[in-house]
Design a protein that fits this description.
- It is a single chain.
- By secondary structure, this protein is α/β, with parallel strands linked by helices.
- It has a domain at 2-153: Glutamine Phosphoribosylpyrophosphate, subunit 1, domain 1, CATH 3.60.20.10.
- It is built from 24 helices and 13 strands.
- It has a 5-stranded antiparallel β-sheet, covered by helices on one side.
- β2 (54-62) and β3 (68-72) form a beta hairpin.
- The longest helix has 28 residues, at 359-386.
């Protein structure tokens, strides 16, 4: 008999599963999902995750033999970490703190990860900043028995373009599937709100949901403020819109809280805004929808339009959505640069697997496996959980991806538009000016705030600290910051990525704070 030791997530198709497993419909959500996992594993074994729709990571243990079985959902919406102690005991959990706080854990900084971080701006692949601690990657099952770890993959993104359908056919299939997912996204007695930006993804989710209220963030600087677009969309849908104005003071004040609760450093400047958004939204609801996943599934980024131009050369340079620092720069900046640590090595096996695919599928494959897991889903999970807000992402669903995996490249991006088929689906419930609105991204005015002496005191403090001196050549570090302040605003990402690492390192290795 297996018992559930760790679990976080939300199982969408619970009604069908309860019927198949003979479980009572009167169970609470907590009891229901625990029973689905334990009874489901008794019935289906390692095939269990193929029966689950939703977001999950969990660990089961055999009461008699002590065997441990861990699983993570296909796209990695919920994190899972593990560590083999000196006594060959497995430490594991859905939080790093589950491991860091254990007396059997030996904390050692993983220096190689810093080189990756300075390029990716997040922690890519299965390694972490804590030596020996690994992420169970999306779509994987881990078996641990008698000191031996055995990893098995049950899902990997595959792409099989079908050229026999029209654009309207694809839009219909997307729309009907999203409609089905939305019927499963919550229980009847739950009340949810929905995050809303100016973009099509969140607008589509809001329009398709039963949420009556949306939540948006904005800025006093109109150049970066999408909140009027969100408010207009809510008005069109005859729904409400709450707005939070993000000030630079609030933005910088919350950075340590974000890095502590993220548990790994994250150089995505929008993560800070999302954290504030979660805190504000949690004041009036405990459940919220969000639109992550559509960009990577359906070709949402403008750079995807260059896929054909990149062609076979992709495998030599494309590591995902971010790539901010070249090797020569890192060699000059870092005190202990290791030329054998190359960012491209993280994704090399992905290119080996997707050999023969069209260039766009290769790019999205990398982003789905590395960028989504390492940045987007990590941010959503960690910040919402820390704010005591549950976020569910209806577009991140294996059934939605199944459609995306079959859509030909020309129905994802063309010369003038991205997410072609997805936007066509969204236009069924949204006005054309919303469904076809140009992608703006989650814009943050950090490139200006970061050079302002009213807000960057902590940046300067850490750049001048002994911590910075441990890792970086001080002269090079100062030159990057000085050039940025002097007018080269393109350097803001490098400054911010270094700063977030230093904030995180001070918390976890100097102050030794463990949540």
């Amino acid at each position: 008999m297996f018992i559930l030791k760790k679990y976080r997530g939300h199982i969408r198709n619970h009604k069908k599963l309860c019927t198949e497993l003979g479980l009572s419909s009167e169970l609470s959500r907590e009891e229901r999902e625990k029973a689905i996992i334990t009874e489901g594993y008794q019935k289906w074994g390692d095939e269990l995750p193929n029966h689950l729709y939703g977001m999950f990571s969990f660990a089961l243990q055999n009461e008699k033999t002590g065997e441990i079985v861990c699983m993570r959902d296909p796209f990695g919406t919920k994190p899972f970490y593990y560590y083999l102690s000196n006594n060959n005991e497995l430490l594991y959990g859905t939080y790093l703190s589950d491991i860091l706080g254990d007396v059997r854990f030996k904390k050692v900084f993983n220096a190689a990860m810093l080189q990756h971080y300075l390029t990716y701006t997040y922690v890519p692949g299965e390694e972490t900043f804590f030596k020996g601690v690994k992420k169970l990657m999306p779509g994987y099952i881990l078996h641990f028995n008698k000191g031996i770890i055995d990893l098995k993959r049950y899902f990997a993104p595959t792409f099989n373009p079908d050229n026999n359908k029209s654009l309207d056919d694809w839009a219909d299939e997307i729309h009907n599937t999203v409609k089905q997912v939305m019927t499963e996204i919550k229980d009847p007695d739950e009340i949810a709100e929905s995050f809303l930006s100016g973009g099509v993804d969140s607008s589509y989710v809001f329009a398709m949901s039963d949420a009556k209220v949306s939540d948006s963030c904005g800025y006093e600087d109109e150049r970066f403020d999408e909140s009027p677009l969100a408010k207009k969309t809510a008005e069109i849908l005859n729904k409400e819109n709450n707005q939070s104005v993000i000030t630079p003071e609030a933005y910088f004040d919350i950075v340590p809280w974000v890095m502590k609760n993220m548990e790994q450093p994250l150089g995505d400047a929008s993560a800070i805004v999302f954290a504030i958004g979660c805190q504000e939204t949690a004041k009036h609801t405990k459940l919220c929808y969000s639109g992550e996943g559509a960009d990577e599934f359906f070709g949402g980024y403008n750079m995807y339009r260059n896929a054909e131009k990149y062609g076979e050369n992709l495998k030599n340079f494309y590591i995902g959505n971010t790539n901010i620092m070249k090797e020569e720069e890192k060699a000059n900046l870092l005190r202990n640069y290791d030329e054998s640590v190359k960012p491209i090595d993280v994704v090399r096996s992905i290119y080996e697997e997707n050999e023969g695919l069209d260039p766009l599928s290769k790019m999205t494959d990398v982003d789905i496996r590395v960028w989504l897991e390492g940045d987007i889903y990590l941010n959503v999970d960690k910040m919402s959980t820390a704010a005591k807000l549950e976020v569910r992402m209806p577009l991140t669903d294996i059934r939605v991806f199944d459609i995306a995996s079959r859509i030909p490249a020309h129905y994802k991006v063309d010369e003038t538009q991205n997410k072609v088929a997805f936007r066509k689906a969204a236009s069924k419930v949204l006005p054309e000016d919303v469904a076809y609105r140009k992608k703006l991204g989650f814009i943050v005015p950090i490139r200006y705030w970061l050079k302002d002496d009213r807000y960057n005191a902590d940046v300067k403090r850490l750049f001048a600290s002994e911590i910075a001196d441990t890792f970086f050549n001080h002269e090079v570090l100062n030159s990057i910051f000085d050039e940025y302040v002097s007018g080269n605003s393109d350097l803001w990402r490098k400054v911010w990525t270094i700063y977030t690492f230093l904030v995180w390192y001070e918390i976890y290795f100097v102050k030794n704070e463990i949540r």
